[in-house]
Amino acid sequence: MQRGIKALTNHQNSDAGHQGDTKGVISVGPPASDDPERSTLTQSRHGDMLELAGSLNVWTLPQMPRRAPPQLSIAMLERLDTAGAWYLARARQQGSRLHGGSAAQASLIDTVAKALPVADDVPAPTPRLRRALAETGRNVIAALIFFRELAEYLGRFLAAFWRGIRHPPQFRLTSLIHHCEQTGLRAVPIVTVMSFLIGVVLAFQGATQLQQFGAEVFVVDLIAISVLRELGILLTAIIVAGRTASALTASIGSMKMREEIDAMRTLGLDPDMVLMLPRILALILMLPILGLLADLSGLLGGAMMSWITLGISPPMFLSRLSDTGVGNVIAGLVKAPVFAVIIGVIGCHAGMKVGKDAESLGRMTSAAVVNAIFAVIVADALFSILFAEIGL
Amino acid sequence: MSAANVIEVRGLRTQFGDHVVHDGLDLDLRRGEILGVVGGSGTGKSVLLRSIVGLIRPRAGSISVLGRDVGALSGAAREALERRWGVMFQDGALFSALTVRENVEVPLRAVPGLADADRRALAGLKVSMAGLPVKACDAFPSELSGGMRKRAGLARALALDPEIVFLDEPTAGLDPIGADAFDRLIVALRDALNLSVFLVTHDLDTLHSCCDRIAVLAEKRVLTSGTMAQMLQIQHPWVHEYFHGPRARAAMSSRRKGD
Question: Which residues lie in coiled coils (chain B) (predicted)?
Answer without folding.
Answer: none
